[in-house]
Specification:
three-stranded parallel sheet; Dihydrodipicolinate Reductase, domain 2; alpha/beta; single chain
Length: 303
């Protein structure tokens, strides 16, 4: 568990249920709030439980385990090998993921890695090698599964040809840019060409070009919490706006997709999509660091 990310509480509670009193002292107040709004029957996915937990700070594991009904706390991450069917790495710092995931990938355990998978070309190359060798890796933003955007995954026919789109998010491009990217990616599909980030570390203003002819502007501004997950689509025939409201539904659907992957061995979408999304993340960082240069995805290699 890393600073600013309470997924060990919320994702575990979605599968296991939770202790109401213990969850009240969760350091992320929004989590007990949205959990409390759900009826009891919304918790759990048949045949799946969070059974073991490890956190960087041992005291965090004690509290998460109590709040989210996790029976086993381990002293080392590797101690779960041989005890579990799959592993979730719910941290959102891409630079840490290769080393956090290495023991489980090398042990052949299916693994879910929170967004973004990586934030550098070298780490993308490592995960690409692992995936090519048969490692069972899934990584995605929950925004791919939010119900408010699903109608536009199915069809944008009524909008005509998409010419322009915007997505907004708080926090950093490195950690939350992928939320915005994966809001639009299932709608436009593969085929992004280039990225230009003319902003700063605190105020990322990112222009993406897609081969379908659409331009996308993403604003990732550190304190813009009032506009998380706002999507606008502008087409030749009409326009639409959607805002994510039900994060519980998105998280549970994401977890259900991973559990089905563990059972079937079939990814819900090609790993090539994850590779393209990570190229977009990396290109956004590279462009900002190079004074707003237009960075073409073909510059970022996965091999």
């Amino acid at each position: 568990m890393v600073e600013g990310n309470g997924h060990p509480y919320s994702w575990s509670a979605i599968l296991n249920g939770f202790d109401t009193e213990a969850m009240k002292s969760c350091p992320y107040p929004v989590i007990p709030q949205y959990l409390a709004r759900q009826p009891a029957e919304n918790f759990g996915i048949a045949g799946a439980r969070i059974t073991h937990i490890w956190t960087d700070r041992p005291e965090d594991a004690l509290h998460v385990a109590k709040a989210s009904l996790i029976p086993n706390i381990v002293s080392r991450p590797e101690d779960v090998i041989g005890e579990v069917d799959a592993v979730i790495i719910p941290t959102d710092i891409g630079a840490e993921h290769v080393e956090r995931c290495r023991p489980f990938i090398e042990a052949g355990i299916p693994i879910f890695i929170d967004k973004p998978l990586v934030d550098s070309q070298a780490d993308l190359q490592q995960f690409s090698r692992w995936a090519a060798s048969g490692a069972r890796i899934m990584s995605t933003s929950s925004m791919r599964y939010c119900k408010e955007f699903m109608p536009y995954h199915i069809s944008t026919h009524n909008l005509g040809e998409i010419r322009f789109a915007t997505v907004t998010t708080p926090k950093s491009w490195e950690r939350y840019g992928i939320h915005a990217l994966e809001s639009i990616y299932p709608i436009l599909g593969p085929g992004f060409i280039s990225v230009r980030n003319t902003g700063t570390v605190e105020r990322n203003i990112v222009h993406l070009k897609h081969s379908c002819g659409a331009d996308v502007i993403i604003a990732a501004i550190s304190d813009m919490y009032g506009a998380f997950g706002t999507l606008q689509l502008c087409g030749t025939a009409d326009q639409a706006t959607a805002i994510i409201k039900d994060t519980f539904y998105a998280f549970k659907s994401q977890l259900a997709a991973f559990i089905e992957f563990v059972r079937s061995g079939e990814l819900p979408f090609p790993f090539s999509e994850t590779q393209e999304l990570m190229k977009l993340v990396i290109a956004g960082i590279r462009s900002r660091e190079e004074g707003g240069r237009e960075v073409f995805l073909e510059e970022i290699v996965t091999e």
